[in-house]
Design a protein that fits this description.
The chain is of the alpha/beta class. Helices cover 43% and strands 14% of the residues. The relative contact order is 0.19.
């Protein structure tokens, strides 16, 4: 069975998608067959890998993760559901396949609120293909709604990226407690791989105090090092390439070190 790593946070803008996409790329470059699943209706992970035009054609013809979760609007006129094999986009990175997201996921909690086994629909949908992968990476929306619950219900580990600002740091303990409770409810042994300090800007007193506070409170749960907010990182997503394909040596070094640490922690 593959190692499944979900990237989660209750707050957006913390570098979650950037890290998830590039961790998937790193695993692929290390020779691991990897599946990246975009569960965020904002589709940022999807658009980091393919163009909006390519996504539109694929979504209309082949479907997206919304189909796998059973969102009614995602089904075709005949009402038939897509399979995981159908919605896959092959080789969006070296040895990396993608299950793209869709804006219909904004409706998933309304539509599946009373559905049975709603937290395990993704796991059930992937049964026919998951053995084809060494690693599955899930990029989750900034909440603990049904898409995130589905990711965690099939995960072996999760990673919490956080930006070094006061508001981002407030919800970390709450998130860890809620994920622990969810794991217990789902009878799932979810392991926190660690907390990643990301999207670091220019040094500032408040930011440094926040980083020091996080490391003091969560100790070894916080990975060494940090990820800096760089133009090259944002440009890589816009160009549909990974950080490792850019010419920014500092960005590549930071992401390589962090991805290597995460991979070691989860047993890759």
């Amino acid at each position: 069975m593959p190692i499944v790593v979900s990237f989660v946070n209750l707050k957006g803008g913390v570098g979650k998608t950037t890290l998830a996409v590039n961790f998937a790329a790193y695993c692929g470059l290390m020779g691991k067959k990897t599946l990246l699943i975009d569960l965020d209706p904002q589709t940022n992970a999807t658009f980091s890998c393919i163009s909006p035009e390519a996504w539109g054609k694929h979504a209309n013809k082949q479907g997206t993760v919304a189909d796998l979760l059973g969102v009614k609007n995602a089904n075709n006129a005949e009402g038939t559901k897509k399979t995981a094999s159908q919605v896959l986009l092959k080789d969006v990175r070296t040895k990396v396949d993608l299950i793209p997201s869709h804006v219909d996921l904004f409706l998933v909690d309304l539509e599946l609120g009373g559905a049975t086994s709603r937290e395990t629909k993704l796991r059930q949908a992937l049964k026919g293909i998951q053995e084809n992968y060494d690693v599955i990476v899930c990029d989750c929306p900034p909440n603990l709604t049904i898409p995130t619950q589905n990711a965690l219900a099939m995960s072996t580990h999760y990673v919490v990226p956080i930006s070094p600002d006061f508001l981002s740091s407030l919800g970390v303990a709450l998130l860890l407690n809620r994920v622990k409770k969810l794991g217990e409810d789902l009878e799932r042994d979810l392991e926190l791989a660690g907390i990643v300090i990301s999207r670091c800007g220019r040094p500032a007193i408040k930011r440094e105090q926040t980083k020091a506070s996080l490391r003091k409170q969560f100790k070894k749960l916080v990975f060494p090092g940090e990820l800096t907010e760089r133009v090259a990182v944002a440009g890589a997503a816009q160009d549909n390439v990974s950080v490792f394909e850019t010419t920014d040596a500092s960005a590549k070094a930071e992401f390589t070190a962090m991805c290597k640490a995460i991979a070691k922690k989860v047993g890759i």
